[in-house]
Amino acid sequence: MLTYLLYLIAALYLGVLTSISPCPLATNIAAISYIGSKVENGRLVIHAGLLYTLGRCVLYIALAGLLTLTSLSIPSVSLFLQKYMHLALGPIFLILGMFLAGLVSVAFGGGMMNEKLQKRVDSMGVWGALLLGILFAISFCPTSATWFFGLLALTLGADSGAITSVLTRIGIALPSASVPGGAFVLPLVYGIGTALPVLVVAFLLAYSAKSVGQTFKVLTKVEWWARMTTGWVFILLGVYFSLAYVFDISFTMT
Fold first, then answer.
1. pTM of the complete model beyond 0.90
2. Average pLDDT in the 110-134 region?
3. Which of 37, 129, 187, 198 is the most exposed place for a label (fewest CB within 10 A)?
4. Is 253 domain-assigned?
5. Which segments cross the bilayer (predicted)?
């Protein structure tokens, strides 16, 4: 139970940080604002936020679940992950941390909200938010892509037992080596996490649109500190795991 709870918290944390990163947050607000401008009933704006959330969850479950289950269902890949995943965690944490801390940058494509998509959303009414949720979840920004690959590492590490294996080696014993249904549950929790601020914005648009700007400023500040802190923690963990398990350097105090 403790292991399960820790993985759920980690997935939710990654999802929330994804949602408040500048690029995803801007697209999320743009999507809900666009839907909100098309309806007069405040409740429909909230419904749009929920449908947008559902769209993101469906995409993340399908993508992360498919990649994880496919990898673990192939005997050779599953055996490889069980045997060597703990060796890959160090470099994975190090690379993700460098992206989050801004030490490495990658240019991604532009936005997906073109005229053709706007017409399709118009024709679907409030249900267009579901389509936007799916499409914007696919449209990865550098930071959101980093968080998503962090989710994949978390899911693969959970189902293969690699993460708990590493924790056991450094003296943190957990009751279980894997998370039952992690390939479905962790992406679901991650998807919900990516939508929490979106739902807040939907409520603000429905009842107090003037508060959206101030909320955006607060979330931007929180995101910077959370991203930098998490990034450097990932870097330190990546260095430690790499030295300990890739280069087999012992840090035991005598």
1. no
2. 68
3. 37
4. no
5. 6-36, 87-109, 121-140, 184-209, 229-247
